[in-house]
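ok trying this again, last paste got cut off
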Amino acid sequence: MSLIVRRSELHGTVRVPASKSHTIRAVFIASLAEGESDILQPLDSLDTMAAVNACRGFGAEITLGEKWTVRGTAGALRVPDDVIDVANSGTSLYITMSTAALCGGYSVLTGDDQIRKRPAQPLIESLNDLGAEVVSTRANGMPPLVVKGLLRGGTTSIRCPTSQYLTSLLINAPLAESSTKIDVLELNEHPYVEMTLGWLDSQGIAYSRAGFERFEIEGGQSYSAFTREMPADFSSATFFLVAAAITGSDLTLEGLDMTDAQGDKAVVGMLDEMGARVTVTENAVRIEGKPLQGAEFDLNATPDALPAMAVAGCFAEGVTKLANVPQARLKETDRIAVMREELTRMGGRIEELPDGLVVTGGGLTGANVRGHDDHRVVMALAVAGLAAGGTTEIDSAESTRVTFPNFVELMREVGSQIEEV
């Protein structure tokens, strides 16, 4: 499927879908808990369904609908009857690795072509340090993986170019037999770890920490059933924020809580710094597009924002530098290389750095571009097409279902000239 996008002016109000990151954490913790949990206003997407299917494989009973009801396993996980396929969900892959280590038998984990290129060696080594047996079937540190428990606890050190490695250990270590000590030698994306710790705090999980460098989690703990509403997703909101900023539009995005731990809430401040007019209320953000000025941003905590912010830079006066985000190369695609390639097709002036992009403003022209089967690349290029001259066509548009199934529908509701073909 492709998207056809033409220059548009947007207006109105958008209710932003629920957070993928919160929904996936909710599914795993509810599945490990004792009793019946209700997840209110969850995100229903391919990535969150990957988490649901993985947890069902370990014995959780999950009923879907307007709310998701999860009857947990109380930590007594069954060995999966079949291979666990996480599809395109990196978060689900990494959390599942540690969850599988709580089983006594063997679990086999795989995913689509992109997932089978995701590095997992640091987490493999840490799980092995802590009593599990994890091997990469191709001996390349990537899925498919075979995992055998039990996770006993102990001491490990780990480099986390993606915060998902540490989140995986933090969520599952409380159910290990004894305490787990984690020395973190490198960590990107701090806000996502804060999000995970917020979930542990809400569950009364006992742990201690020294900043982000060292964690100790008591073993033999348990999770309890909960009822919780999922907040709106700032990563999804980013595309509407940038769209309004570069098209001179006036949009209000509802459901956004600036007190939430999500790192991509920083995009609101970035666009404000570039010149957009931003008004924040208790549960919404209004953005009015104004002439933008280039700026320099450290995206280490917000790697998912790189595609959309690269587009913003194309429509700003001067130079925009997006730096300190090498992990953007480890996502569904190498987003640094891909965004440089595709925005260049649209006439953008883009310099690729080892850890980011330098974007010189001047506008874009519609073109046929590739989405590379990457949901955030497709949505960023669609946003670019809303302000570019002429028509933009983007392939692999079906990938938006990974995190934002109704992206096109909501874009149309606020005036975007965008169609699926």
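PB: full thing came through this time. Residues 234-247 form the longest helix (14 residues).
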